[in-house]
Amino acid sequence: MADPMRIRAQVAGDKATVRVLMAHEMEAGQRRDASGNLIPAWFIQEVTATHNGKVVLTAEWGPAVSKNPFMQFSVKGAKAGDKIAVTWKDNRGATRTDEATVS
Q1: Fewer CB near the terminus (10 Å): N or C of the chain?
Q2: What is the distance between the terminal CA atoms of the chain, rounded to a whole angstrom?
Q3: pLDDT tens track for 7-63
Q4: What's the whole-model pTM score?
Q5: Residue 60 resides in a domain
Q6: Residue 9 in contact with residue 21, Cβ under 8 Å?
Q7: d(CA 19, CA 13)
Q8: Angstrom distance (rounded) from CA 49 to CA 33
Q9: Closest listed residue to residue 8, CA positions, set 97, 98, 69
């Protein structure tokens, strides 16, 4: 299983700013190893974020996203104590979900 995501959610006014750092190798499938063989593609394809169980963000990514991607977004109406969960799924079928509490 992949390393946990680092999620920070801080409220300011009527919205929360959510910052997510995902641990993933994100291989594009275009590089070659020392033997000259192509390294197979391995990247996050889908990202979903929820606020107290309600989907607030969906994204479809491809091989052009960098290793250990960072994402930031805002959630309107969030308040301290609310739960933000982020889930990703890669092209090999692996998934990861982590959760943070808005502060």
Answers
A1: N
A2: 28
A3: 999 999 989 999 999 999 999 999 999 999 999 999 999 999 999 999 999 999 999
A4: 0.90
A5: yes
A6: no
A7: 17
A8: 35
A9: 98
- Domain limits for position 65: 6-101
| Residue 59 located in a structural domain | yes
| Beta-bridge mates of residue 87 | 48, 97
Of the candidates 69, 86, 73, 64, the residue with the CA atom closest to the CA atom of residue 24:
69
Residue 24 in domain: yes
CATH number of the domain within which 37 lies: 2.60.40.10
- The 8-class DSSP code of residue 82 comes to -
**For range 66-92, the mean pLDDT:** 96
Residue 88: pLDDT band by 50, 70, 90 thresholds?
very high
Domain assignment present for 1: no
